[in-house]
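Q: I'm building a small set of examples for a reading group on sequence design. Run inverse folding on the following structure and report the sequence directly after it, with nothing in between.
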């Protein structure tokens, strides 16, 4: 069994693939001037791939430092010798500060490098997309 990991994150799961959402840009202005400040997002998303031999377990997770409400969309595409397939999962989320939840989970046969995974969050009037995972 192989688990893939690239970025460490406080989501409490060992040796998994993490995609952090980076930073948001917030503009602030004062009477004298306008300035752009960069602040970290209070949320992080992760796509975890767990290679279980002939199967791959794919888990979409979300962690937050503040109360948030929104929706998510998880799209998983796979291509290989047996053809192609596409899975779409999505729905609402309502988290409290400190929550770390699984948004969606599936198991598919094949090799991890045959998957194209996109996790998108709609939150606070923005659409945030975790980078596509192509292994």
């Amino acid at each position: 069994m192989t688990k893939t990991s690239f970025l460490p994150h406080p989501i409490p799961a060992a040796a998994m693939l993490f995609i952090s959402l980076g930073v948001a840009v917030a503009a602030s202005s004062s009477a004298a001037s306008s300035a752009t400040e960069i602040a970290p997002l209070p949320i992080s998303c992760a796509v975890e791939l767990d290679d279980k031999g002939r199967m791959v377990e794919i888990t979409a997770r979300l962690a937050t430092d503040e109360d948030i409400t929104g929706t998510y969309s998880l799209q998983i595409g796979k291509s290989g010798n047996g053809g192609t397939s596409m899975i779409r999962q999505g729905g609402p989320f309502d988290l409290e500060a400190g929550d770390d939840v699984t948004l969606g989970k599936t198991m598919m046969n094949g090799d991890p490098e045959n998957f194209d995974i996109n996790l998108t969050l709609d939150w606070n009037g923005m659409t945030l997309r975790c980078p596509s995972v192509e292994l």
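Residues 2-134 form a domain with the Immunoglobulin-like fold (CATH 2.60.40.2420).
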